[in-house]
Amino acid sequence: MTNKPLLLDCTLRDGGYYTNWDFDENLVEDYCRTMENLPIEYVEVGYRSIPLKGYLGEYFYCPEYVLKRLKKLMPSKKLVIILNEKDIRATHVDELLGPCKDYIKLVRLAIDPSNFERAIVLAKAIKKMGFEVGFNVMYMSNWKENSSFLDLLEGLDDTIDYFYMVDSFGGVFPKDVKEIMDLVKSKTNCALGFHGHNNLEMAMANTLTAIDHGCSIVDATITGMGRGAGNLRTELFLTYLDSQQIAKIEYNNLSVVVAKFEKLKAEFLWGTSLPYMFSGANSLPQKQVMEWVGMNRYPISSIVNALNNQKEAVADNFRLPVLPKEEKYRKAIILGGGKTVRNSSVAIKKLLKQNYDICLVHAGARNVGEYLDVSCEQFYALVGFESEKLLDKVKDFGNISQTCVYPPYPRAMGTIVPQEIINLSNELSAVDFTNISSDSPLALAIQIALDKGVTELYFAGFDGYETSINHTQYLVSQENQKIFDELLNYKDVVVKCITPTKYKNMNIISVFSLVK
Question: Which residue stretches, if any, does this entry annotate as coiled coil (predicted)?
Fold first, then answer.
């Protein structure tokens, strides 16, 4: 490579998949000042979107005041926003892009090839407003098998400024890049771009191959921050350009910003791993893998098992006997993993002992060791790592009355049941009190109690989290809160929290007020 291609940094947009498009303002300012002093032509600052359900942060909507601030910080850069084509129509263009004219140079469209014809209508409306237009067409690794959408490129050279090949699954190799670029070149004269993901750690090699084969513009992000396994690292590509004397890099500011994003990486843990490698090699969706990895709920073996089931089109690989539904108990204590379970264990055990119509349900295995001497029937809600934790806590399954309970069939993760507990294991017929999650330990525990006829639910050990929490804890707390909210609206069930909790809307009473 002798000529420098155009470089587009899309850290705030692609990295937003980890932060929900919220970034610390000081970090953004440092990032922008660094971008301003680097040989980077385009900076993609986020999405613009119509209002969507749920919370999405500042850089998903990029209000005009945000664009104005960013342009002031990066006056020499061509700023970029992206539209998710599946949500946006030509009728939205004036409202969404009108406020952008003073700040934005390039508007890119994230496009599923199956919606290509519809995207052309949107692109023409954007082009009329005077913006450069980029097509980010996804699922590049599947194009050789289904390339008919490329026939629609004819006559669009005046509409599309950059046609991006997006390796959505991170699964292509240099030879694939060459073949696909030849295919695209046979259909259009548009300038080509490449956006590589790093599942197989091929983002750099594929990007250099794309450039050598005539690619005009490439994407990268600081520390590779991006959806799933992430992207080509901006600092790596710039170092390469510097080493080849293609561009001169000032490393002082770059190193400071990289260090700050490395701190984010330690929290959110983007980058490749065995599940991302497997999904990339087999062109499997990244969204599901990202959720599984991000919740830190499942061992790698379970995630890879689930991905292999997807590859083989197997819904699940194991059925268990269904937990019988019966009017057996009136009350249940559901134990979470919080410290208050251990602090209140004597009182909780007394409460169990003085009630004949009560069962104990463990939402996970963290505290089962404290309650092995309890004589009432116990249920273990098992998801992800919990089976292994249970084996570590319980050495002899013959001395207590217990049932291990798994999510309903078919389980998205597939099923791996340790041999030691297979004869004690059941599955739920359904999780029907909530649609938030069918494999949350909390949701499973609640459904177990409901299936046993329970009408009074006592929760212990659902302490909630302190103000300073990591990303995984945040995801779990948000999921738990939604499940609690749906339970509180469920039919004819009394819900009480008998230990302290930070979860909202809970009726809190003291376990010590219930024991004699």
Answer: none
